[in-house]
Amino acid sequence: MTARPRTPISRRERPAKPALSREGITAAAVAVMQAEGLEKLTMRRLAQELDTGPASLYVYVRNTAELHANVLDELLGSVDLGPVQAVGDWRERLVRVLSSYTAVLFEHPGLARSALVSRPSGKHYLELLEALLALLSEGGVPDGRAAWGVDVLLQFATATAAEQASRDAAPDAQDEQDALVAAVRGVSPQTHPRLAALSDELFSGMAEDRLNWGFHVLVNGIRQTGRPDAPEDH
Amino acid sequence: MTARPRTPISRRERPAKPALSREGITAAAVAVMQAEGLEKLTMRRLAQELDTGPASLYVYVRNTAELHANVLDELLGSVDLGPVQAVGDWRERLVRVLSSYTAVLFEHPGLARSALVSRPSGKHYLELLEALLALLSEGGVPDGRAAWGVDVLLQFATATAAEQASRDAAPDAQDEQDALVAAVRGVSPQTHPRLAALSDELFSGMAEDRLNWGFHVLVNGIRQTGRPDAPEDH
DNA sequence: CGCCCGTAACGAACTTGTTCGTAGCGAACG
DNA sequence: CGTTCGCTACGAACAAGTTCGTTACGGGCG
C-alpha cells in the first residue's frame, strides 16, 4: 500500500467542479441528448461531460433506465396541458393532451421505449396524470373507471409512440415491419382466410389516424365498461 | 505474415458439428432459456453451446432482439387457440385467447419486453392474428375495425404482461412501483385534487381484474367506434 | 487434375453498462 | 485541537453485444 505513482490531487485545486447531484446529472444528460442524440448519451459520455468517472454517477442514478426516466420527465414538461382549462368538448381536449404527450415521445424513440418499461414517477408525469383525471372527471366518467383508464390511455399512447417513432428512425424497425408485411401477404388463404382477406386493411391508414382512432376506442370503452368489482362504480 | 502460432485444425476432424442454421440456433436458444433463464441466454453462452464463437451467430440472426423474437415465436406455439372453435359467447372466447397469450408472456418478462419493441412476424404469431380476426369477425365487428383492433388488443396484452411480469420478477421494477405510489400519495390536494382523491383507486385491483377490464374496454370500444376514413366501415 | 473464388466461421478487438475496493474529504465527537 | 467515521468520488476490472479482417472449406472453372 501507499507509494502509488498516482498523484492524489486535492479536489480544491480543480477548477471548482459544481459537485454532483441528481439534478445536475439530469440537466447535463438532457443537454448531451439534445446536442448529440440519445444514442450518444452513455454513462461514459455523461461522466466525461461532468468531468468524472462513470462509477460516480451510480451514486445518484440507479442505472441507465433511471437516467432515461429522469430525462424523460424533464421533457414531459413540454407537454401542452392547456386543453384542460380550455373550452370545448372534453373528449376532444383529452385527445389533444394525449396527442401532445405522444408528440413529445415521438421526438425521442428511445425514451418512449424506456417509458414503456420503467414506470415514471416524476413531477411532470404526475401533472399529466392530474390533467387526464380532470378531463375524464369533467366527462362524467366514474372515478373508478377513470383511475384505471388513465393507465390504459397512457400505455397505449406510449407504446404507439415507441413503435412508430422507432420505425421512422431505426432501419431495423423498418425491416421488421417489412418482414411482417411480407409474411402476412405471403400467407395462404386456405389456412389463414381472415388474414389473407384483411392483409391490406391491417397496414392501412396513416399513423396519426390510427392513433386518434385508438384514443376514441379507449375513451368510448372506458365510458361504457363497468369495473368488475363495482358494477355501478362508486 | 504467416507463421502464426495458431494451429488451423481442419473442421472435419471435429466431432461433427451439426452446422449452423437459423433453426438450430433458435432451438438451442430455447433450450438454454428453458434450462437457465433468459438472462443467461447471451450470445456468448449460446455460441458456447453450439461450440462456436459469438460472431458466427450474426450470420443467422441480426442481433439479440431478433434472437429473442425467434425464441418468442417458438413459445407462442403454446398459446391456446382452442376457444376459436369452441362454442359460447365470442367475446368471452376472445378474452380467453388473449389471456392465454398474456400468460405465456408472463412466464418470460424479458421476452414480453422484446415483443413490445420488436414486432414479431413468425408463424405462430400469424396464427394468433388469424384466430383473433376470426373471433372479431364472428362477433360482427366490421373488417376495417377488426384489422386495426387486433393491433391494439395485442399491444395492450403485451405491454401489460411486460409491465406486470417484470414487476413480479425484478426488484428494480418493484422499487419503481413503490416510488410512484409514494409520489402519488405525497401529492398535495391543493395542487393535484383529482390525484389526491383517487390515489387509492389508481393502484387498486388485482392484476388479472385490470387486465380483463382492459380487454372488455377495448372490445367494447372497437365495436362502437367507427374508423375516421370510413364512417360505415365497408 | 489443379487452381480460384464465394462464403461460412472465427478470433480479436472495441464499446458500453455495471460493480468492487480504495482513498480522501468533512463533520461529529471526544 | 486531534481522532474517527461515514460517505462521495474514482480507477480498474468484468461481462456482454457487436463489428472487422482473416482464414479455411468446398464447389466450379480452366
CATH class of the domain at 75-169 and 204-224 in chain A: Mainly Alpha
**Which two chains form the greatest contact, residue counts included?**
A-B, 75 and 75 residues
For the largest beta-sheet of chain A, the strand count, sense and barrel status come to: none
CATH superfamily of the domain at 75-169 and 204-224 in chain A: Tetracycline Repressor, domain 2
Query: What is the third-level CATH name, the topology of the domain at 75-169 and 204-224 in chain A?
Result: Tetracycline Repressor, domain 2
The helix fraction of chain A, in percent, is 55-70%
Cα-atom Rg of chain A, whole angstroms?
A: 23 Å
Number of helices of chain A: 12
User: In what range is the share of β-strand residues of chain A?
Assistant: under 5%
Count of DSSP E strands of chain A? 0
C-alpha end-to-end distance of chain A: 69 Å
Uncertain stretches of chain A: 1-16
* Average pLDDT figure of chain A: 88
Question: What is the structural class of chain A?
Answer: mainly alpha
Order of helices and strands of chain A: HHHHHHHHHHHH
- Do you know the CATH architecture of the domain at 75-169 and 204-224 in chain A? Orthogonal Bundle
Instruction: Please tell me what the overall shape of chain A is.
Output: globular
Subunit arrangement of the protein: homodimer
Describe this structure in words.
Chain A has helices spanning 22-36, 43-49, 54-57, 64-76, 90-107, 109-118, 123-138, 143-169, 171-185, 193-197, 199-202, 207-224. Chain A is mainly α. Among the domains of chain A are: 16-61, Orthogonal Bundle (Arc Repressor Mutant, subunit A), CATH 1.10.10; 75-169 and 204-224, Tetracycline Repressor, domain 2, CATH 1.10.357.10. The longest helix of chain A is centred in the middle third of the chain and has 27 residues, at 143-169. Chain A is globular and about 60 Å long. The termini of chain A are far apart. Mean pLDDT of chain A is 88; it is low at 1-16. The interface between A and B is large, with 75 and 75 residues. The structure holds a DNA duplex (30 and 30 nucleotides).
